[in-house]
Amino acid sequence: MAEEGNDSSQEKTEEPTPRRIEKAKEEGQVARSKELNTAMLLIAGTGGLLIFGAQIGKALVEVMKHSFDLPREVVFDEHQMGLYLLDGAGEAMMALMPLMILLFISAIAGSIALGGWLISGKAIAPKFSRMSPIKGLGRMFSLKSLVELVKAIAKVSVVLFFAIILLRFQTEELLGIGYQATVPAMVHAADILGWSFFFLSCTMIIIAAVDVPFQIFEHTKNLKMTKQEVKDEYKDTEGKPEVKGKVRQLQREIAQRRMMQDVPQADVVITNPSHYSIALRYKPERDDAPIILAMGIDEMAMKIREVAREHQIELVAAPPLARAIYYNSKIGQEVPSGLYVAVAQVLAYVFQLQQFRRRARPRPHMPDIPIPDDLKHD
Fold first, then answer.
1. Which contacts of 192-200 are long-range, i.e. CB under 8 A and separated by 24 or more positions?
2. pLDDT tens digits for range 211-262
3. Angle between helix 204-223 and helix 18-26 axes, rounded to 10 deg
4. How big is the CA angle at 106 (ends 101 and 112), to the nearest 5 degrees?
5. pTM, two decimal places
């Protein structure tokens, strides 16, 4: 019980594991910055007005002219009035469409710029814990609420500071509008307002540049784990050590049984003669080089030799070659190219030995097996 109490009181000092991060994404918990989204929307909106503003203004003027300049027969026909209204609304929508598309794209881009694209049913599922008045009061007076208050004050301060600077630079130009004719003055004023709002929107980049690292830090901090949580997750994902050990043992046993089934296909078994056994197959019609069918040491080496004797496969004692193959090769692969000559001499010796047993030639002598220095293993 005391151990459990210590585990629950551990500090979250460990970085979140990939599994913890993936699980958080499944629950809709990713780093998001409202300030980044707001900045992109404001900049896209004011920039879109500067680009499409004149076109939108002309289109809306034409809609107003079309809507108020009606023939007499249309005024007294209620059906025609409805058609005029729909026509005017359609033209207004077409005029505003480029700006709406730009705002839509910027809203999506601002949302996924930090945290990426994520659709989670758990994030939008209703949570009754959020309706608790006590927890609501706790959130109101939490550190996060304090940070949001500081950000709101900082936003107002930054925008107000740059607004004052902008106003000072444009004071003379604004006063000069009073001396212009009505239409040019309205155009000039709209131009000044448009660019002023654009520059003020760009000041939100400063807030976003501070908020984005903070949100990443806060998100990572919330996902941090205790050492016990890391251990528990490892056990859940990788399995308990004793279970993994049992699985590995079973895998080795299966591999060994499969390996022993291949031994009867061997052409020769090279031995140490007691500690190592290497079963080789070489069929010129199917193999480019000798293939290692099985190999083992001590007890496994004894089993390989027993199977070889049962199937009358030649056993050749060549300790340096057996060690070189064992430590430089894997089962199912070809022997290393540096041992081609040595293995070829062994295979030639086995062929001559088979000829001798059929009384076709004198008893051969075991040749000296050359082993390259880089492949030797004592």
1. 194/46, 194/49, 194/50, 194/53, 195/50, 196/166, 196/170, 197/46, 197/49, 198/43, 198/46, 198/47, 198/50, 199/162, 199/166, 200/159, 200/162, 200/163, 200/166
2. 888 888 888 888 888 888 877 777 766 656 666 667 677 777 777 777 788 8
3. 110
4. 130
5. 0.52
